[in-house]
Amino acid sequence: APIYVGYANLAAAKFSKNLISQQDAVLAQEKYLKEAQQLEHDYSEGARINSLLRELYRKNGMITKGILVAEDYGKNGPSVSTYLRDRKDDAVAYAANLKASLGSNESVATLKYIVGQKPQNFELRNMYADALMENNQYKEAIETINEAQRILAASGNARLDYTLRIAEANYLSGNTANNLIPELIKGNAKLRDNEKLRLIRLLANTNQLEQARKNFSEIKPITEAFYMADYDYTNGLLTEKEGNKTVAIALYKKAIDANPYLFKAYNSLIASYTSNGQTKEADELKSKLSSLKTAL
Prior knowledge:
The chain has 16 helices and no strands. It has helices spanning 2-16, 22-39, 43-59, 63-76, 82-101, 106-117, 122-134, 138-154, 160-172, 181-186, 193-205, 209-217, 225-241, 245-258, 263-275, 279-295. The radius of gyration is 20 Å and the shape is globular. The mean pLDDT is 94.
């Protein structure tokens, strides 16, 4: 099994050096990780391989496959130790987080239960807050983040990614006078790249376009479809706010090509088509989006 994991890593390295295509790299990694999973008898290593496989799918915009792999481990993975039970919970939370991004209401209850069992797991708290926001439960999202943030702030360890989610939920709930944004701009370097993109969208939506563009110019694209979809979508949103709808439409299309399950990009593109009077294109996209949601 370790040899096959090594082969998967080699395929990833070849792609990073432009020696093979992304499609060939993904197919090779998928093949080798599945073979490793079948051969591995060490439970801890099996959990790690499952994590590698679902991350491969997520990073390459293969969201439904990532959900299925995570759910399978959550249901059928071994639970003979506390460590392995935790890995099963991680897999369940991972699947719920991805499903929440697709609009699943059930995921909110799943993540709420896991957070209740592990209140000190602060990454799980982020997942739960994100799921709540995806389901328009902004007040509840702020409450769960504030609950953890108070504990951390008392020891001088308040998290900026928590502040970002509170600010985002405030905006989405209609509070445009967001006094947390200056703190986020100042601490931007501490955020992970995907969170920096979230901040840029928040800045764009609150009409701080110059600051948003400055922040965006400091982020470099990477060779992961899931990330690049978010990157292009963010650029599209900002570009549209800046007044260039034609370029924004092209960027929304790029985002959807990279991650066909980035539903917010569909919604933005449909809105752009509609405002342009491109009824046919808007209707076709609505039909595609409806079919994707029905197939989930």
